[in-house]
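Hi F.,

I've been meaning to write this up properly since the lab meeting, where we talked about keeping a consistent format for the predictions we share between groups. The idea is simple: the sequence comes first, exactly as it goes in, then the structure tokens exactly as they come out, then a line or two of notes. No screenshots and no reformatting. I'm using this chain as the first example so we have something concrete to point to.
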Amino acid sequence: MEYTVQQLANLAGVSSRTLRYYDQIDLLKPGRASSSGYRVYGQHEVDRLQHILFYRELDIGLEQIKSLLQDANMNDEDMLVQHRANLKKKRDRLDHLIKTLDQTLAAKQGGSKMSNEQKFSAFKQQRVHDNERLYGKEIRHHYGDQIVDEANRKQLQLTEDQYSMMLKIEEDLKKQLQEASGASAITQDHQERIANLHKQWLQYSWPTYSPQAHVGLAQLYIEDERFKSYYDQFAKNGAQLLRDAVTHVFSST
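Output, unedited:
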């Protein structure tokens, strides 16, 4: 079977504009062009689009999807097995969130009282899972499974106040990156505020802190596109600003 843009869009439940954009960014190219110049998609492209949509259900960005689809160690069957496992994990997380919501609602209506820690456990688990999905492979490669597992456990054990403070520090860090990005010159004060906020944020999850490890992580932020794009979405050259600040403040510590 072969499909035009509109036919494939109707089949997959996406817009033709989406398919044209995927073509533009080299995520999903048509198999060939017809004699009239129309894009024509074959079975290979249909299967690739299915993979793309599975990944999108997991909220994975398009650049990361492109990278995942280029993995020579993964064939179609491997990817389908992976999709199933990831979607099951997503379902389990949603079930946990729904259970937490139901328990909170029941408590409001006179049922068993919930502790504040219970109210936030599902959100902490979601955060840990998202970090693992997006960055786990690289972080485990650099720091080892034991360190990462300990960091995950520490996050899950945060109290309500600690968790709220960690999120506040993260927001303050983003604001400082934005302020530095818009400044005519990056000052010593900018760099110290950025570096120290990032240190405080890390200490809510790292089992032990060291300036050397901090500098190494900041360097990874500009070497890996996924880390880089995360900080760059908050401020122009955000990852570079963060790396430079951490390196300036802590490299000689």
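Notes:
The first helix runs from residue 5 to 12.
Residues 62 and 89 are 21 Å apart (CA to CA).

If this format works for you, I'll send the rest the same way.

G.
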